[in-house]
Description:
The protein is an alpha/beta fold. Helix content is about 45%, strand content about 15%. Helix 3 crosses helix 8 (about 235-255), helix 6 (about 165-180) runs parallel beside helix 7 (about 200-210) and helix 7 crosses helix 8 (about 235-255).
Amino acid sequence: xxxxxxxxxxxxxxxxxQASMRTLDEVGVMFFCxxxxxxxxxxxxxxxxxxxxxxxxxxxEALKTCPKTFDWYGRKxxxxxxxxxxxxAPSYGPVFILENGxxxxxxxxxxxxxxxxxxxxxxxxxxxxxxxxxxFMDAKYASDWAQAAxxxxxxxxxxxxxxxxxxxxxxxxxxxxxxxxxDKVVVNGLISVxxxxxxxxxxxxxxxxxxxxxxxxFITPSSLNGMTVPGSLASLLMVNNAEVLAGVVLTQLINPGxxxxxxxxxxxxxxxxxxxxxxxxEQCLIFSATKALGNYYGLPVRTGGSSCDAKDNDMQAGxxxxxxxxxxxxxxxxxxxHSCGSMDSDSTLSFDKFIYDEEIxxxxxxxxxxxxxxxxxxxxxxxxxxxxxxxFLDLSDDLLEDSTELYRQDYLNxxxxxxxxxxxxxxxxxxxVVQRTTRAYQKRLAEYQMPELEPARRAILEKYVPAELLKxx
Length: 473
């Protein structure tokens, strides 16, 4: 017994597709990068300055060479994107930390602490040097330092750096050299599309570098209804779909077969405040529609997360984070960023929320796993043995063992929610959720053990970052 889910009809997807094709062919997409425009020109595309026009035929030709699945490698493991499971990644870009009730700008100790939490997480499968802002570091080394720090602290596959040609190139080369893997995907980069319908110079440069190197990209616009796209959700999807497909076409012109994920990370919008509503009902709908569109084009999909607009670890944070997480996992998204800790419209990271979000993720996964109905799980013999008005703690040994094992399979024992009786909770000190999450993350940080860093690997990192900056505590 599982939830049955089918978000969009074929007719709805066809209508969105045709409107998006008209957008590409009649309106066009701006690429603020001469190299990108030249690639389109060399393949016979119609251009007008920095504007490129793309036909429906061009889109379908590009989709033919896009892989439906691909493997993504780290130091000691790999994940498969597009195999039906949702790969979970950390936050992306918060500039503030909420800690002990106060906000402060991200410092180096915060960056290192979050990387350690991510590395020891039971729900995250990949790492991310963009998980927090790194403006505290000398700009000359900042991007390279952030990636080197993550390579040192976390052995799993890694999201790459994408801010322009130099950072993208260094990111790819550093990962390839550090892992000694030169013919597989070792970084997956966020190509952020600006609405309406344009790619910045930095994103074009990164897309070109990643495509040439055969590295993966998740192409993702993030729009606001009534501001950067028209007011309706349908129009947002139409524009975002055109924006993503334009980037997909470019990747395949550069390197047919380059791995690419279909992504939309647009939010609801509150025009009263001229800002996004991250954690809104509308965003949940956008996440579901994104997966439906990705399926229509046969591409793996990035969308979703455990995000909220809440400024504290309060009821709003819990409600919105559960809603966005549920919408993401229910849709079957292949890749999810902002899985743990993001709040305040993704501008703030909370270590306490990180811990609780891990348990939200586990809870949603449990709900979607459903209930197994079989002769074994019905346990009729146990009911017959005890009969009316009995206790199933008194079962005979074999049946008690079966009952206990099936209970363990069916029930998720979370650590953070309070499930004591009222009196017991009062007598134990009336501990709050934040007190429990604080104790949990502090324990994780205290117990973290840094992976071995061989001299050859350290030497590779020192090619990009001065040795004194690699002394991580």
